[in-house]
Amino acid sequence: MPELPEVHTTTTGINKEVVGLKITDVWTNYNSSFHAGKNNIKNPSFFVSFKKEVAGKKITSASRRGKNVLIHLENNKTILVHMKMTGHIMCGKYKLTKDTKDPWKATEPGPLRDDSFNKWIHFVCVLSNKKHLVLSDMRKFAKVTLFETHEKSAHFDLKNLGPEPLSELTPLLLATQLSKKPRGLIKTVLLAQSIVAGVGNIYSDEILWLAGMHPERKVKDISPAEIKKIFSAMIDVLETGIELGGDSMSDYRNIHGLRGGFQNSHKAYRRTKQKCLKKGCSGIILRKVIGGRSAHFCDVHQK
User: Fold this and answer.
1) pLDDT tens digits for 113-169?
2) 270 flagged as catalytic
3) Which of 72, 76, 247, 296 has the smallest set of CB atoms within 10 Å of its CB?
4) Burial class (CB in 10 A: 0-12, 13-18, 19+), 36
């Protein structure tokens, strides 16, 4: 699932490529009876109202909250996209074909057309410059909805999110947030979006490796000095993830359909049975399921 660096990279791309353009039309083939009555475009009746609100409106900016992409419109509405497990947003030239399985095709050579991870188009915004802002979502788990921009802090998908690591968090605030789950294991607690917004499985492994913290340590047993190490590692790892354009070990691609580079810098995530890369450490990276999620760590220097 795209985490903070991937969502940041996506919003940066949207701000560079489509701000100032109008959405002239929207399309989707999401349609699920499970979402009947819900406020997202997988509910056909919601999509009808969604289309009326966004068609003809100018995109003014994009921002991020947790793992959510927020696309702001001139009519004080905001499109929220949560890319979930396999979603990513791209921009380019596409055409609608008669292919019932994958009807939208990129029209120019390059990653948008040639990378198989980019072909699962289920939501399209037609733009006033004749390009398209599209959502590729292989497993169809992504969420797209619309809300009044001024209601952001109270919106269902946003109101319970914890502080932003790179703009709001401090060591003291991190300690306060972690203390809300004193008996929780640090790996699991870092994944709780109500504690810290935007950190997921990949970056939590990398943060704990850098901080020298065992993922099964209980929060109540972590000292203030160790929390400062976690905070420092969090900033370091997330900023590196952004600098490298996100992690594309799996499906994620940026707005141009290109892979990020953070997967080439992993110290723990998916390095099972490989030698620990910490200088002077003799450990081997282990994998263990903790709280239903895979954790990768070195049990020699992570204590």
Assistant:
1) 999 999 999 999 999 999 999 999 999 999 999 999 999 999 999 999 999 999 999
2) no
3) 76
4) exposed
Query: Which residue type, as a one-letter code, is found at position 203?
Result: Y
The fold for domain 171-298 equals Helicase, Ruva Protein; domain 3 (1.10.8)
Q: Single out the residue of 212, 187, 211 nearest to residue 201, CA to CA.
A: 187
- The hierarchical CATH code for the domain 4-154 is 3.20.190.10
Question: Which one of 2, 5, 165, 215 is the catalytic residue?
Answer: 2
Determine the Cα–Cα distance for residues 176 and 56; give it in Å rounded to an integer.
45
| Sign of the CA dihedral running 169, 201, 251, 103 | negative
Of the residues 42, 65, 67, 259, which is catalytic?
A: 67
pLDDT of 1: 84
Containing H/E element for 106? strand 104-106
Gap between the terminal Cα atoms of the chain: 27
What whole-number distance in Å separates Cα of residue 153 and Cα of residue 26?
Answer: 26
Domain with CATH 1.10.8.50 in the chain: 171-298
* The model scores a pTM over 0.90: yes
Whether 159 is catalytic: no
Average pLDDT, the chain: 97
Q: How far is CA 184 from the centre of its chain?
A: 24
What tokens were used for 241?
């993830």
Range(s) within the chain of domains with CATH label 3.20.190.10? 4-154
Catalytic residue chosen out of the listed positions 152, 181, 228, 293: 293
pLDDT band (50, 70, 90) for residue 21: very high
In the chain, the percentage of residues whose pLDDT exceeds 90 is: 97
Q: How far apart are CA 303 and CA 296, in angstroms?
A: 13
Does residue 78 carry a pLDDT above 90?
yes
What's the pLDDT tens digit per position in 206-234? Answer: 999 999 999 999 999 999 999 999 999 99
Structure tokens at 173: 């605030």
Q: Quick one: tokens of 20?
A: 């100032």
